[in-house]
Write a structure and sequence with these properties.
The chain has 61 residues and is mainly alpha-helical. 75% of the residues lie in helices and 0% in strands.
């Protein structure tokens, strides 16, 4: 399951980096790309932390 989350993170990051415009139609500059990647990283980091907490609680035996 961790591999799937890692692959989804990489695919999402590549999508955010290589898209030319965002949802509102504005062109992506370098600063906007970095900001969107930072938000994506924060979101995925929260998911990874929750995943590992649940993983360690289940395998605590």
């Amino acid at each position: 399951m961790g591999y799937i989350l890692g692959i989804l993170f990489i695919i999402g990051s590549l999508f955010l980096w290589f898209r030319t415009s965002d949802g509102s139609g504005l062109n992506n500059t370098f600063q906007i790309k970095i900001a969107s990647l930072a938000i994506w990283l924060l979101f995925c980091l929260i998911l990874f932390i929750i995943y590992f907490i649940v993983y360690f609680l289940i395998n605590r035996k």
